[in-house]
Amino acid sequence: MILHEYETRSREFIEADQLRKLTGTVRRVYQHVPFYRERLESGSVCPEEFERRPEMEALPFTTKEDLRSAYPFGMLAVPREELIRIHASSGTSGKPTVVGYTRKDIDLWAEITARAIALGGGKPGRVLHNAYGYGLFTGGLGLHYGSEKLGMGTVPISGGNTERQVMLIEDFKPEVICATPSYALNIAECMEGMGKDPRETSLKYGIFGAEPWSEEMRRTLEDKLGIKACDIYGLSEVIGPGVASECHEARNGLHIAEDHFFVEVIDPKTLRLVPEGQEGELVFTSLTKEAFPVIRYRTGDIASITREICSCGRTTLRMSRVKGRIDDMINMNGVNVFPSQIEHCLLGVPELAPYYQIQVSHKGALKSLELHVELNEAFYFEQDDEPSLIHKIQSRLKSHCLITVNVKVHPPKTIARSEGKAVRLIHKNKEPLIT
Ligand code: DLL
C-alpha cells in the first residue's frame, strides 16, 4: 500500500494544519480578489478578525453564478500572466466557468491525483489507460499528470474510438483504467462485441468518476471487467479530479485530500451545517491553491462525511459517494429522487442491460416521468413477457423510491452509449426558470 504521510496524521494535526492554511487563504483572497474583499467586508470579516475568531460560518459562500459573473478571469488571485493552464467547465447554458492554475497549482494537483491513483491501485511501473477526455475538461489532463508523477506508463487515449481503445488495452496491457463509469461500461460492451472476454484483459483496477454512479454499477463493472472499481471525485472549480478518492482496500467512501481542501456539509435550504453522517450539499474551501482559491464553494453535490477511521488505516475524513446534483433531483409529487437511486433499482433486474434514460416532462406544474430501459441481449425474452417486466420495474421503483413511472422497454443496444459523462436525465418542455 502506498501511503502519503499526511493520510495517517492524527486528527488534531490535520485540523490545526487546516486552520493555519485557512487563515492564509482568507488573507490572500482578501488582498487579491475584489469579489472576496467585498463579500468579506460586507460580512464584517477581515483576515485579522478571522485569525482571532476562526468561524467558518462567518465566511461567505461562493456559487457557480459568482464564478460565471466573474467570467473569464475576475476571480484570479494572481496576475493572468502567472497562469500556465486554463480549464473550463461546460455549463448547460451560457458561458463556462473558467479556472486557472499557476505552475505550483499544477504541481500540487499532480501530487493530489498521483495519490488518488495510488489509492485506487496504481503503482510506479504499471501502465495506466487514461480514457477521460483530454481538453478543457479536467479529467484527462488531471489524471494524466498524476499518473506520470506516480511513475506509471501513461496512455493518453482520451475518450472515443472505442474499438481502438480495446486494441490498445490488449496490446499495452494496462493494469489500471481511468474513465467515467458509463464509458468503462461502453468499453466492456465493445470488447464483448469484438468477441473478447473483458474479464480476460490485464486490467486489475478501475478509477471511475466525474458522474454519479451507484453501488450496483460498481458491482456490474467489477463483474464485467474482473477488476476492483474505485470512485474518484472532483470538480473544476475546486481543482479537478482528486479532491477525494476511494482506497481499493476498503472501497467504502472517498478520502478527502484534507491537506488541500476543507470540507463542510450544509443543508442547501437553510445553509446551516448538518451533523456528521447526514446528507447535505458538499462545500469546499481550497487551502493551498494560488491562482484560483475558493472560499466555501457550494458544489451542488449531495453526500455525507464521516471522521471514522477507514479500515485501510488512513485518518483523512471520508465522504460518501455522491448521490447526485441538487439540479438533477426530481421532485415527483413531493417525493425527491435522484437518477442514481433509479439506477440502483434497474441494475438489479436481470432482464435489463445497464443502460437507461430518464425523461421528465413538464406540463405547467404537472410532471411525469418516463423511464427508458434496454433489454439484456443475453437474457431470453419474448414480447409477451414485456407487461410483467414493466410491472416488476414499476414495483421496484415504487418500493425503493416511492415513485410511479411509465416504463418504455427498448431492444438491446438502442439506448445511446456514453464516451464521457452520460446524459441520463432529460427534461422535456421545461419552462425557463425565472430567477
Ligand atoms: O468531473 C472532475 C473529474 C474528472 C472528477 C475525472 C473525477 C474524475 P467537472 O467537469 O467540473 O469536473 O464536473 C464536476 O461532476 O460537481 C459532480 O456533480 C460530478 N462528479 C465528479 N466526480 C463525481 C463522482 C469533473 N465521483 C461535477 N461521483 C461534480 C458523482 C461526480 N459525481
Description of the structure:
The structure is a single chain. With 435 residues, the protein is α/β, with parallel strands linked by helices. The protein has two domains: 101-326, ANL, N-terminal domain (Rossmann fold, 3-Layer(aba) Sandwich); 329-427, GMP Synthetase, Chain A, domain 3, CATH 3.30.300. Helix content is 30%, strand content 25%. The protein has helices at 11-32, 34-42, 47-52, 64-69, 103-119, 138-150, 162-172, 181-193, 215-225, 339-346, 386-401; strands spanning 85-89, 97-101, 127-130, 153-155, 176-179, 205-209, 228-235, 240-246, 254-256, 261-266, 280-286, 297-303, 305-306, 318-319, 324-325, 330-332, 335-337, 352-363, 366-375, 406-410, 425-428. The strands form five sheets. The chain has a nine-stranded mixed β-sheet with strand order 4-3-5-6-7-8-9-14-13. Strands 10-11-12-15 form a four-stranded antiparallel β-sheet. Helix 11 links the parallel strand 19 (366-375) and strand 20 (406-410). The chain is globular. It binds 5'-O-[hydroxy(phenylacetyl)phosphoryl]adenosine (DLL). 5'-O-[hydroxy(phenylacetyl)phosphoryl]adenosine binds at residues 89, 132, 137-139, 209-212, 231-236, 240-241, 299, 301, 322, 325.
Show the helix and strand layout:
Elements: H1 11-32, H2 34-42, H3 47-52, H4 64-69, E1 85-89, E2 97-101, H5 103-119, E3 127-130, H6 138-150, E4 153-155, H7 162-172, E5 176-179, H8 181-193, E6 205-209, H9 215-225, E7 228-235, E8 240-246, E9 254-256, E10 261-266, E11 280-286, E12 297-303, E13 305-306, E14 318-319, E15 324-325, E16 330-332, E17 335-337, H10 339-346, E18 352-363, E19 366-375, H11 386-401, E20 406-410, E21 425-428
Parallel strand pairs: 3-4, 3-5, 5-6, 6-7, 18-21, 19-20
Antiparallel strand pairs: 1-2, 7-8, 8-9, 9-14, 10-11, 11-12, 12-15, 13-14, 16-17, 18-19
Bound molecules: 5'-O-[hydroxy(phenylacetyl)phosphoryl]adenosine.
Residues 89, 132, 137-139, 209-212, 231-236, 240-241, 299, 301, 322, 325 line the site of 5'-O-[hydroxy(phenylacetyl)phosphoryl]adenosine.
